[in-house]
Amino acid sequence: MFSNLKIYATDPILELALAYKEDPRSDKVDMTVGVYQDDHGRLPVMKCVELAQSNITKDKSYMPVLGSKSFCTSFEKYLTGGNSDCVAASYTLGGTGAVRLIVDIINKSNSQSVIWCSDPTWSNHFGIFDAVDVKYNKYGYQYKSNIVDLEKIKTDLSEAKEGDVVLLHGCCHNPTGVDLSQDQWKDLFEFMKDNKLIPFFDIAYDGFSKNHGEDRWSFNYAFEKFETVFLSYSFSKILGLYGERSGGLLIKTPDSKSKALVESNIKKLVRSTYSNPPVSSVKVTNMILESDELQTIWHEELDVSRERIIRIRNTFQEQLTQYGSAIDGISGQRGLFSLLDLSIEQVQRLRNEYGVYLLDNGRANLAGLNSGNVDYVASAIANL
Ligand code: LMR
What we know:
Elements: H1 14-22, E1 29-30, H2 47-55, H3 69-80, E2 87-92, H4 94-109, E3 114-119, H5 123-132, E4 135-140, E5 143-144, E6 147-148, H6 150-157, E7 165-169, H7 182-194, E8 198-203, H8 217-225, E9 229-234, E10 247-252, H9 256-273, H10 279-290, H11 292-322, E11 337-339, H12 344-354, E12 356-357, E13 363-365, H13 374-382
Parallel strand pairs: 1-12, 3-4, 3-7, 7-8, 8-9
Antiparallel strand pairs: 2-10, 5-6, 9-10, 11-13
Helix pairs in contact: 2-10, 2-11, 3-10, 4-5, 4-9, 7-8, 10-11, 11-13
Bound molecules: (2S)-2-hydroxybutanedioic acid.
The site of (2S)-2-hydroxybutanedioic acid has 8 residues, from loops.
């Protein structure tokens, strides 16, 4: 029965997070999976979530396939300011669930369409592309002094053909922490419109760069300009709902007929995969999206998280420089991640000799640093 199966490489993020948990050393440092940790290394339960949880109804009956109707309405309104009969919306199992459904829809709509993604990108993008068996290609995502080389992106995308899809990290690029400026976004969108390329935004860190709202400027700008736009949106990090699997997707289509087609296909995919989403996660997320009061609390909490990440970035950079490390640019990068310029041997030494865990490609979750360990990590890196 199973002899045709093959063994896959383990997931480079989640498996490492497990290895960290099993490490018995007391001075170990977790800079692996993208979770926000506070200055005590804890994953805070957000006040807005606690309040919503204590107010949701206890009814455990099945959710509609796309999540509740009110979730779809409030999610679209929250992100775009309106409710259009050309936009399909759905609750999803985190950002990953949204990316997966969108990639499925792209493949079912046009199997010749190629998805172009940044190189480097979040490793699971490739996992999803492979699982759906969609065509994909990469555009170089290079930067110097935290300025992205837009010409390189455009040169690589000049190979794309009409109807291809460009996967864009709306903010807090994973893994580099380096984003396009607003002028660069505008320039890229003009190029994409000229070449009839379709934007697909993956946004998981809205609020971890400048502020919640402004961080999704690129999406909102493109949403106005393009006829077709894909968005996968994660609440995992920004509501601290990781294991609850909270996310959503929006697909802007050219007309209401296309919207009906897309929606019907999402329903078919969800129903035949997990049937419908978990009731309490939909209710909690929806309650926050519908309440001005909870949103105010939420955004204030996000401000606190973001400011801590920026402070720890600055401290880390200062300490690295003081210890004589050549690593640079951390202060100006945004979101949870930076890609540290370390060889795989150095990353492994860091793990084995110091108990400091980052991904093999040098991606480090800066929220794993705090006032108690930042000096230790900076000196360990400088000693490599
Ligand atoms: C990450 O990049 O670490 C997060 O998006 C979590 C995940 O699922 O990989």
